[in-house]
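If your schedule permits, I should be very grateful for your opinion on a structural question. Please examine both parts with care and let me know of anything in them that strikes you as inconsistent. The record follows directly beneath this note:
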Amino acid sequence: MHTANVQHKDSQRGVSLIESLVAIVVMSLGILGILGVQMRTLADTQTSVRRAQAIRLIEDLSERMKVNPSALGSMASYTTAWNNTPTSPADCKTTACNSGQLAVYDLVQWKQSVKNTLPSADANVFVVADETDAANRRQLGVMISWRENERESTADYTNPLATATTGGANVSCPAGSTCHLQYVQLNARCAPYTLDATPQFFCPASKT
């Protein structure tokens, strides 16, 4: 009778340890799943924040153009390609600048702000080929690119919608980057004046 009881106890030895190990494994998998969801949520939030920053940067460039009294006439001075670092001919904060010089100065300051705000960022500003008459174009396309560090696949970076057409070539998002594309309308401020008692308006370097 005593021998039978000993054999029964031996057969149950180690069961509690196995159950504990299984519980630890299940709990670990649950914790890893929760961490994975949190990391993905954090990555998506970071992407949304960076896209919002890109939108604000383009709005900043648009506001700079509105300050320029003849932004429309200086359209070419606002254009810049990928990996292009323009240089300003003058410091328009301390020196009087004409419309073209102010456009280049604003572009230099803005492009540096893009690089300071987003990781590995760059910008491409181009004339939009939206009309057959090249002399009547009034829009600039602005594409900002940046790197999403949390992703590894090159295919995941590229935004297929970030593609536009210029006057002679396509502008697409650089490989390995995420891009945001937006269009900016240029204008020329008109100043009223009176000539022979008839109201007239002068628009500097405006296009007809």
About this structure: The radius of gyration is 30 Å.
